[in-house]
Specification:
Layout (H helix, E strand, L loop, with lengths): L3 H41 L2
Length: 46
């Protein structure tokens, strides 16, 4: 690649997509863990 800008875009787009997927996974995981804790903690106190 002779043009550095083209290389940055070629490599940057997959990195941004990967970071977006990772962030969405973390958000969804937080939601599932949060709802799981709400269900489990009252049972644990019995």
């Amino acid at each position: 690649m002779r043009d550095p800008r083209r290389g940055l875009f070629k490599l940057g787009i997959p990195i941004m997509v990967g970071m977006l997927a990772h962030t969405l996974f973390n958000i969804v995981d937080t939601i599932f863990v949060g709802t799981g804790l709400v269900c489990v903690l009252p049972l644990r106190t019995l």
